[in-house]
Design a protein that fits this description.
alpha+beta; binds flavin mononucleotide; elongated; 4-stranded antiparallel sheet; 36% helix; 3 domains; disordered C terminus; 3-stranded antiparallel sheet; Alpha-Beta Plaits; NADH Oxidase
Length: 311
């Protein structure tokens, strides 16, 4: 890797040194020096922060680097994107153009990754028969679990699980399972929602932060897709089923050595949501070092309300 300082351009502001988290750029007698190129993680901060374009980094794709434009930042629009995005569970059959998918994934590649590993990969499934098979397989697993919880000894195991894990959501789904079964027989797909496209974000099987990397990318995919008039839905059921079912992993053809950490469906919504949602106010713990601890539930447009601290 070659990282070079154009000495004639550099008026040593040392921003490159200050912004280098890896410790590759260091100060020597008031000037920046590339002291440890082997620890550089190619984040490109040094190139991005240098006001005089005095750094040449040959591991970066120069064609992708463009000047940032603060005038384009529009917080109100971003708020509209985040508040207007909803999980879409009814899609038009229309395919999403490949270029659109590529544009969305290219944007998501700007998401942060731990140590700038940039190791999020995607499997994109558009084959309708395969999508249907995946849905049926996941729903089949749910049906199997449901059937086991109705009879002994499965019922006992389930009751024990409920006691040990009272906050789980399984009960809610089991309660409604008869309805789901009936609707599924009538053609409803509760797993992939008959979306024309499934995106599986995967990372290395071993190591740290791969789930975080994939899910941050997934959030950006969902928001950008919404901004483009597309709908998405995060499919946690598929994620869970993939953890336990090898046949399902084979069905989605997870690349060797990789693990799926986030699953989303995408397509053109069959109908629009006209209103934003209402959300619980987040409970925020403030530790400011002055007046001890305050716990507040903060909501948009409302004054902070004190809520009692948790016991
Ligand atoms: C981790 C996670 C797992 C989810 N799993 C599913 C799922 O399997 N199927 C589904 O239809 N929706 C799933 N959702 C969508 C949530 O139900 C949805 O985000 C929530 O009800 C709020 O609705 P909204 O996204 O329309 O604002 C999941 C969301 C998240 C964040």
């Amino acid at each position: 890797m070659m990282i070079r300082l154009l000495e004639e351009r550099c008026k040593p502001c040392l921003l490159c040194v200050r912004d280098c988290a890896a410790g590759a750029w260091r100060e020597d007698n008031g000037r920046p020096v590339m002291a440890a190129p082997e620890v550089c993680n190619r984040c490109g901060h040094c190139v991005a922060v240098c006001p005089r374009r005095a750094i040449v980094h040959n591991a970066l794709d120069q064609d992708q680097i463009r000047r940032t434009d603060r005038a384009l930042l529009a917080p109100e629009i971003y708020k509209e994107i985040v508040r207007g995005r909803r999980s879409i569970r009814h899609y038009r059959p229309q395919a999403v153009p490949v270029e659109t998918i590529e544009a969305i994934l290219a944007l998501a590649s700007h998401s942060p990754t731990a140590s700038n590993k940039q190791n999020v990969g995607y499997t994109i499934i558009t084959d309708p028969r395969l999508l249907d098979k995946i849905s049926r397989t996941v729903f089949g697993i749910a049906r199997w679990i449901y059937a086991r919880t109705r009879t002994f000894p499965g019922k006992w195991i389930y009751l024990l699980f409920k006691k040990l894990s009272p906050a789980n959501d399984l009960e809610r789904y089991l309660t409604v399972m008869e309805y789901y079964l009936d609707q599924t027989q009538k053609g409803r797909d509760y797993i992939l929602h008959r979306a024309p496209l499934l995106i599986l974000a995967h990372g290395p099987r071993k190591g740290s932060f791969h789930g975080e990397n994939c899910n941050i990318a997934a959030a950006n995919i969902m928001n950008y897709a919404h901004a483009m008039g597309l709908g998405t839905c995060y499919i946690g059921f598929l994620g869970i089923a993939l953890k336990f079912s090898r046949p399902l992993r084979q069905l989605v053809q997870t690349p060797k050595g990789r693990k799926v950490y986030a699953c989303l469906v995408m397509g053109y919504p069959a109908f629009r949501h006209r209103y934003t949602s209402s959300r619980k106010k987040p409970v925020i713990q403030w530790i400011d070092g002055n007046a001890g601890q305050r716990h507040t539930a903060m909501g948009e447009g409302s004054a902070n309300q004190a809520v009692p601290p948790s016991p």
